[in-house]
Amino acid sequence: LFGLKQTAFLRSPESSAGLLTSSERFSFLNQLGMIHSDLESVRLSKRELDCVRLKLQQKTALEISEELGLSVRTIEHYLENLKIKLGSKDKRDFSDKIEQLRLLGRV
Questions:
Q1: Residue-wise over 49-88: b if at least 16 C-beta within 10 A, else e?
Q2: Which of 9, 31, 91, 106 is most buried (CB neighbours < 10 A)?
Q3: Quick one: pLDDT at residue 97?
């Protein structure tokens, strides 16, 4: 089974940059059983949880990167992985799901 970090480097000839698109990654991770619809059981890394906490405070990727001392691109990567893991359809859905994580006591 591939870990999430390894899947980020999988390439797709159909993608313009050769990297998997978000929907391709979602489909691939879903097939591996790494996408959870149950927010109580989804596995989140420490950094992903840090990003969730800061997004709940309405911080931007730039502000999160400054607070955590990481690059903006790294934060964008964490946020994209969060959207995939949580099965978010759009920004509104992502906001709703991270709020649900807060209500469940996950963050």
A1: ebbbbbbeeebebeebbeeeebeeebbebbbebbbbbbbb
A2: 106
A3: 92
Helix 46-56 vs helix 91-103: crossing angle, to nearest 10:
100
- Helices in 1-107 by DSSP H: which ranges? 4-7, 22-31, 46-56, 61-68, 72-86, 91-103
Q: What residues contact residue 100 under an 8 Å CB cut-off, 6+ apart? A: 39
For 25-34, the pLDDT digits (tens) are: 667 766 776 5
According to DSSP, residue 39 is labeled: T
Residue in the structure block whose two tokens are 């509104």: 92
* Higher-scoring residue by pLDDT: 101, 69: 69
Average confidence (pLDDT) over 88-99: 91
